[in-house]
Amino acid sequence: MAEATKQALWGGRFEGSSDPLFREFNDSLGFDHRLAIEDIAGSIAWAKAIHRAGVLADDELAVLLAALARLAVECQADPRAPLGSGEEDIHSWVESRLVARAGAVGKKLHTGRSRNDQVATDLRLWTRGAIDRRREELTRLRCSLVALAGRHREAVIPGYTHLQRAQPVLFAHWCLAYESMFARDDGRLADARVRLNRCPLGSGALAGTAYPIDRAVLAADLGFDGPTDNSLDAVSDRDFVIETIGALAVVGVHLSRLAEDMILYCSQEFGFVELSDAVSSGSSLMPQKKNPDSLELIRGKCGRLAGAHVAMLTAVKGLPLAYNKDMQEDKEPLFDAMQTASLCVRMAAVVLDHATLRAERSERAALGGYANATELADYLVRLGVPFRESHDMAGRAVRHAIGSGKPLEALSIEELRSFCPLAGPDVFESLSLESCLARREILGGTGRESVGRALDEAVRRLGLDRVRSSDAPV
Ligand code: ARG
For residue 259, is pLDDT > 90? Predict the structure, then answer.
């Protein structure tokens, strides 16, 4: 049917036809066609529910179920099938296809249901599935980080604060820092999933359906943990979208920091990391360039996740109860955030899988920059000097070393003693890289054994995660 003549679901009350610009402005099919499978799943469950409530006869249910099942197969084969139909939204499209296929009985499906509880249900189903896929991708990224750490178990890099060399750390420790962040992100998505997994169907437009639906059975049928508690809340709640995008925004913050670290590390100034040609690009003008575009785009795209979060917060904050059309604006930020997060997480994993550490360069950098000055202060503490004084003595020794263009460990014992009178010849041992690391065999620290244990633990955890995520219902 041509767009201009398409009869809307709500056309009965209207005499005049819609302005074409209003149609374009109002219609959501252009983006909510992504909900087709969820809308059909919800419709199948609703058909069964109203059948149990005595609204549909057995043969009517059978006709509806067969037509809906066929429609699902078609949508799976061609997800863009609804586009160009001129329907207002995916709910109208599914219903009109159903009526076209099943005839008059198709018109009974919407009994006791509103697009308000329908869209809230569809979007929860969609978000639930998308969360499960993002969690799989995060697990894969965490595996890449752990594998990278495992390939460079021994390597040392300078650790930074204020982007100034601070103390040496194991490269594996750096990898596991990001693994910890993504593990928390996974937890945040899992938590959001728990809260969203309630079924709004049966809430009607806002006041609850007038038909005797067993909402517990209906909820279970769709894999929800139970029905929502309050019909007004159920049709107007979008905190599950806000919360999910919020969790993705934090993923984005972590990915962006990872990208930023790696962009620095693969610059010629740092030179710690070599990116694969497969994820880099060249310059059209400067033949020598190898640019970390993959990482820069991760850093850039992650801004969209924060933007989507703000868009959702502001879209909902001024809305009176219950449903308002503003809420149709929930979908594009959610879809975009999910797609962006998916792309960035998967890209980051590929970048890490092909990255190599130039361990001799990073270790050389870790040895420079007076990153062992804390060791000198701690050495003096072990001889009984209060830390504030030893800090001052070490600081003056560093200043002298900088003036003579030498690292701390290259000063003579006499030079060192002029600032730290108690220093003995064993001081040099304390200033070595290995000693810096060995003194940090603390839970969560960068000592070789501590990091080895953390790495083994992460491997074990990820193995368990994989089992758990494949058990989860999708
Ligand atoms: N396309 C709409 C949305 O996404 C569906 C709900 C329409 N409800 C209504 N009362 N107009 O929000």
Answer: yes
- From atom 2 of ligand 1, which residue's Cα is the shortest distance away? 328
Rounded to whole angstroms, the Cα distance separating 449 from 469 reads 30
Q: Given a cut of 80, is residue 3 above it in pLDDT?
A: no
Q: How far apart are CA 305 and CA 310, in angstroms?
A: 9
Q: By 3-state DSSP, what share of the chain in percent is helix, strand and coil, each rounded to 5? A: 65, 5, 30
Copy the structure tokens of residue 439: 């003194």
- Shortest-distance Cα residue to atom 7 of ligand 1: 115
Residues with CB under 6 A from ligand 1: 28, 32, 89, 115-116, 119, 323, 325, 327-328
The residue annotated as part of the active site, out of 267, 276, 281, 283, is 283
Give pLDDT tens digits for 45-71.
999 999 999 999 999 999 999 999 999
Per-residue model confidence as pLDDT tens digits over 303-340: 999 999 999 999 999 999 999 999 999 999 999 999 99
Active site residue 162: yes
- DSSP string over 194-256: HHH--B-TT-TTTT--SS---HHHHHHHTT-SSB-S-HHHHHH--HHHHHHHHHHHHHHHHHH
- Which residue puts its alpha carbon closest to atom 3 of ligand 1? 328
Q: What is the pTM of this model?
A: 0.93
Q: Which ligand 1 atom is nearest residue 10's CA?
A: 11
Task: Compute the distance between CA of residue 326 and CA of residue 322 in angstroms, rounded to an integer.
Answer: 11
Would you call 283 a catalytic residue per the annotation?
yes
Asked if 305 contacts 248 with a C-beta cutoff of 8 angstroms, the reply is: yes
Atom of ligand 1 nearest to the CA of 327: 12
- Closest atom of ligand 1 relative to the 88 alpha carbon: 1
Task: Quick: pLDDT tens for 95-114.
Answer: 999 999 999 999 999 999 99
Set out the domains of the chain in order of their start, with CATH numbers: 18-111 (1.10.275.10), 116-150+171-356 (1.20.200.10), 365-462 (1.10.40.30)
Please tell me the residue having the least CA distance from ligand 1 atom 4.
328
CA atoms of 212 and 50, how far apart (whole Å): 8
